[in-house]
């Protein structure tokens, strides 16, 4: 009998933790929604009455019902980058492609990600394909915004197994907006 009571207590505690986690993810997503203009009502399924965000449009949860993917591509959203999304503990994919998201980002906002991927604009996709054709070794890092000098060809540094090389971009006016792919960059401080 005591064994059943202990098991029941553990079950209640674990489900309470799960509900708190889901409520935390839902709260973060609602905060992001409040900071954006949504003229097409694309985020209308993000209801305050729904504790779990796993069935909301653009949201994907893992087996533990934690949000790991936020895909807001072509939602016609307007506003600053919703940096509150970086507080989602299990987030590993974020796409804000084809929206009017603006503002600046710091590398500090992405320190909680172990792996982070996002959709990229077609112009940058073609540049990346040229880079991969040039050398198939592993890309180590992309220059931070503060490293790119305006009106000059920004260097894209990478480490090759054979030699260190520097590639100059032909797209000098291209700005990297909402484009992140690969592992969390190492701190440059």
Kindly describe this structure:
There is one protein chain. The protein is of the alpha/beta class and 189 residues long. It has a domain at 2-119: Leucine-rich repeat, LRR (right-handed beta-alpha superhelix) (Alpha-Beta Horseshoe). It contains 2 helices and 9 strands. The protein has helices spanning 2-34, 122-134; strands at 59-61, 67-71, 78-80, 93-95, 100-102, 115-117, 155-159, 164-168, 181-183. The longest helix has 33 residues, at 2-34. The protein is globular and about 60 Å long.
Distance from N terminus to C terminus (CA atoms, Å) equals: 58 Å
**Uncertain parts:** 14-22, 123-181
Biggest pleated-sheet summary: 3 strands, mixed
What's the number of extended β-strand segments? 9
CATH class of the domain at 2-119: Alpha Beta
String of helices and strands: HEEEEEEHEEE
Question: What's the short story on this structure?
Answer:
By secondary structure, the chain is of the alpha/beta class. 24% of the residues lie in helices and 17% in strands. A hairpin with a 4-residue loop joins strand 7 (155-159) and strand 8.
